[in-house]
Amino acid sequence: MRDLKQIVKAYDVRGVVPDQWDEDLARAFGAAFVEVTEATSIVVGHDMRPSSPGLARAFAEGAAGCGADVVEIGLCSTDQLYFASGKLDLPGAMFTASHNPAQYNGIKLCRSGAAPVGQGTGLDRIRELVEGWTAADGTVAVPVHPGESGTISRQDLLQAYADHLLGLVDLGSVRRLKVVVDAGNGMGGHTVPTVFDGLPIDLVPMYFELDGTFPNHEANPLDPRNLVDLQARVKETGADIGLAFDGDADRCFVVDERGEPVSPSAITALVAVRELARARAGGEQQPTVIHNLITSWTVPEVVREHGGTPVRTRVGHSFIKQEMARTDAVFGGEHSAHYYFRDFWRADTGMLAALHVLAALGEQQGTLSALVAEYERYAASGEINSTVQDQAGRTAAVRAAYADLPGTTVDELDGLTVSGADWWFNLRPSNTEPLLRLNVEARSATTMEKLRDEVLALVRG
After folding, report:
1. What is the DSSP track for 25-43?
2. Rounded mean pLDDT, 267-278
3. How far apart, in Å, do the first and last CA atoms of the chain sit?
4. Is the distance from CB of 458 to CB of 427 less than 8 angstroms?
5. Which of 155, 170, 362, 435 has a 20 to 30 A CA-CA distance from 279?
6. Residue among 88, 8, 52 at smallest CA distance from 345
7. pLDDT 10s digits, 380-410
8. Is the pLDDT of residue 147 over 90?
9. Nearest Cα to 81, choosing from 110, 45, 109?
10. At residue 10, does pLDDT exceed 90?
11. What gap in Å lies between CA 294 and CA 127, rounded to an integer?
12. CATH architecture classification, 379-459
């Protein structure tokens, strides 16, 4: 019997196809999703991976067999699926493994209005149902409701998605920009042409061919190695900006005119300023902006400087979305380049963040590097991963070394965060791999590098 705990993660379903899961299990997940959400209709989309169409159709069949009508939107980005869930007011399922290698696939699930489904909000119950329908030999017997089968229909929502985003950001009066976009053979190659159509943009496309085998590089811009081609093309073409999307195009990374990466914290601060201004113009006195605990000190500083209230939360979209709902926050940002908007059903959309950056750049005559300089106040390490079998033991060793130093504070909201007067670091375990993830920030590069190396020495033994 397959161990579903290996593929049902904190926020989604993800594993190797067909070794860990296949269309039979996808069909069962579709039925279980309908049982748990009690949905009468759902929407389903998928990315460009070779296994995605078959998995998505099997899920739809399982859902229809339990009486739900299914709207298939076909090829889409994850944020396009969230748009469909919000626009149609239906629970949704997106088949993607985001930036993972080609042999992986997964499902991101949401309730109506793009509300997240994760552990504690339905995903654990879905797993339990599928486990109950799976025999010891791995065969799956999905319950069928005779006479109650739902329909499966098709709808194209790409233009509606583009129109919605462009209704949230005014790009009509910006100066013309040369923009290089690296889609990484992922879903950005599907969405960018439609969203950018008619804008004052000279588009330089890279790897727009949809190919779930990722022939050019992994569709994971968080890894600096996957930005090299984009950086070179920006410099070669004299572009104003470079954008890189991950495989399912829900995250967007930004490169300035020099080919230098702009930190997601700086993008969070820049977009926060724009969203705060719009909210205050609409009469809100002190709008809230959410940021996870790994974003730069710059983010809460900028939010306060522009009349907002910063709220710190754990890493992860389910925590961000819960806090956005609780506080009615106008915007939220993470260090991993996930950006969340109240006007997008509190869901994350890299495309909308990219449009904000393009608008901010095009509304003035300076370079992107000059524009974001205000939001790059500190020296940061970026996220450094270390393979560690004894995650708890190594974390305890780091805590023991720093917790009692004069002037330090410790919190364990998400992993271990230790803060001093001129620095902070966070060390947290991966949810899915034997990794410890380290982020360090300090007022000077020298302090940051020294602290980074000291903590890594303890982590790696």
Report:
1. HHHHHHHHHHHHHT-SEEE
2. 98
3. 37
4. no
5. 362
6. 88
7. 999 999 999 999 999 999 999 999 899 999 9
8. no
9. 45
10. no
11. 30
12. 2-Layer Sandwich (3.30)
Q: Give the tens place of pLDDT for each residue, 290-312.
A: 999 999 999 999 999 999 999 99
- Mean pLDDT confidence for 266-277: 98
pLDDT at 136: 85
Contacts of 81 (CB under 8 A, 6+ apart): 43, 45, 73, 92, 93, 94, 108, 110
Residue of 441 and 404 predicted with greater confidence: 441
**Site of tokens 């997240």:** 116
In the predicted model, what is the mean pLDDT of residues 32-41? Answer: 97
Q: Which residues contact 223 (CB under 8 A, 6 or more apart)?
A: none
Query: CATH number for the 4-156 domain, one of 3.40.50.620, 3.40.50.150, 3.40.120.10, 3.40.50.790?
Result: 3.40.120.10
Residue 38 near residue 132 (C-beta atoms within 8 A): no
In CATH, the number for domain 264-375 is 3.40.120.10
How far apart are the C-alpha atoms of 386 and 173, rounded to whole Å? 46
Average of per-residue pLDDT values in the chain = 95
What residues does each domain of the chain span?
4-156, 160-260, 264-375, 379-459
3, exposed or middle or buried, with CB in 10 Å at 0-12, 13-18, 19+?
A: exposed
In sign, the C-alpha dihedral spanning 65, 71, 75, 76 is negative
Q: What is the pLDDT of residues 100-140, one digit of tens each?
A: 999 999 999 999 999 999 888 999 999 999 999 998 888 89
Percent of the chain with pLDDT over 70: 99
- Plot region of 86 (φ>0 → left; ψ -120 to 50 → alpha; else → beta): alpha
pLDDT value, residue 339:
98
Q: Do domains 160-260 and 264-375 have the same CATH topology?
A: yes
Q: Which of 348, 264, 334 is nearest to 292 (CA)?
A: 334
Q: Which CATH superfamily is domain 160-260 in?
A: Alpha-D-Glucose-1,6-Bisphosphate, subunit A, domain 3 (3.40.120.10)
> Is residue 376 a contact partner of residue 299, using CB atoms and an 8 Å limit?
no
Whether 1 has a pLDDT exceeding 70, the answer reads no
Pairing of strands 379-380, 435-442: antiparallel
Residues in the chain: 461
Q: Helix or strand or coil: residue 333? A: strand
**How far apart are alpha carbons 150 and 147 in whole angstroms?**
9
Sole residue written with tokens 């890189």: 244
